Amino acid sequence: MTTFALIGAGPGLGLAAARRFGTAGHSVALISRNAQHLDELTAELAGDGIEARGFTADVLDIESLTAALYAAGTSLGTVEVLQYSPVPRADFMKPVLDTGADDLDAPLGFSVKGPVTAVNAVLPGMRDLGRGTLLFVNGSSAVRPNPNVAGTSIAFAAESAYARMLHDTLAAENIHAAQLIVPGAIRPDSEHSSPDALARRLYDIHTGRDGFRHYSEPLPG
Hints:
Layout: E1 3-7, H1 13-23, E2 27-32, H2 35-47, E3 52-56, H3 62-76, E4 79-84, H4 105-129, E5 132-139, H5 150-170, E6 175-182, H6 195-208, E7 213-215
Parallel strand pairs: 1-2, 1-4, 2-3, 4-5, 5-6, 6-7
Helix pairs in contact: 1-6, 3-4, 4-5
């Protein structure tokens, strides 16, 4: 059994994605800062017959994130699928003219150093398996910069560039890197951007292995 590792585990998209990949036969590693969330999510997945464990880590803490992914691979099985989808903090979203250089430290740590740390932690195992999938989930500011949320716009653009380089570089090793853009809010009543719909889309990206950038629905005009 190989592992689906989810960075940014929560009760919405995180739980839906964990359930979709777990139902397909993967063990599930849930990574979040919130230990209570992890306990609740693992219990819910266990009720569905899915083997899941929680690992507490902060994406801004490189050592804790590396340790969590190492523990996940050791205890549950090699990480075959990594999903990076933590929710950015509200203080990342200042208007561009109110954003100073220091204001970018945390967003860049969150959206660049965090993904680089995670990928470096799981890549050796994927190479040993001879396959793997790296999934990055971002909002529309990753492709259409929004001056009202400068920190995430800048950081998501950098994350997109990193993910695209991984896509181009790792394809020859049967390791697929892809990005899913969710233009609006994730809502239970949304046809294409509900947690369950997005989870299905992420699983289809994993199995289809076609292209780099995908959209849950078209960007608004």
